[in-house]
Amino acid sequence: LTYGCRVKTYLFDFSKDDFEQLREYIAEIDIGFVEIDIGFVVNSVGVGRENLERYGDNPEADRQILKVNALGAAEFLSMVLPPMERCGGGQIVVLSSSQGIKPIPLLAAYSAAKVVICGYASFFTLCGLVLSST
Question: Where is the signal peptide (predicted)?
């Protein structure tokens, strides 16, 4: 099938603390967004855990999961929404997990981060920004 569109893929490392560097990168390619007329974005920011642990047993790993999965995904949305709106809108697919709806034991940080993502998707839908949650 041919749809007459171009696809560009950008990879970001959301485990780093410097979200401003990512914002600058988006600003640099913003002109590209205008040319391309961004219409579809996949928000697939996330990391997992190797071991099941009680919350607090490994605070650094808990912080990393919350930072990447919750803050990283939220930052990503705040980066792509303005250029998309300037181009007349588009679609964003937010990938999350069933743990955002039904958390499971020993994955508190992961589940909490997924609750945040599900909340953002619901919020944007209520505000008239149509997102597709998976």
Answer: none
pTM: 0.74
Catalytic residue (choose from 3, 55, 110, 120):
110
Q: What is the DSSP string of the chain?
A: ---S---------TTSS-HHHHHHHHHHHHHHHHHHT--EEEE------SS---TTSSHHHHHHHIIIIIIIHHHHHHHHHHHHHHTT--EEEE---GGGTS--TT-HHHHHHHHHHHHHHHHHHHTT--EEE-
Give the whole-angstrom CA distance, residue 117 versus residue 128.
17
Q: How do the domains of the chain map onto residue ranges? A: 19-133
Instruction: For residue 120, indicate whether it is catalytic.
Output: no
Q: Could you list the pLDDT tens digit for every one of the 134 residues in the chain?
A: 677 777 777 777 888 767 787 777 777 765 555 455 567 777 778 888 888 888 889 999 999 999 999 988 888 888 888 777 777 877 888 888 888 888 888 899 999 999 988 888 888 777 766 544 44
CATH number of 19-133: 3.40.50.720
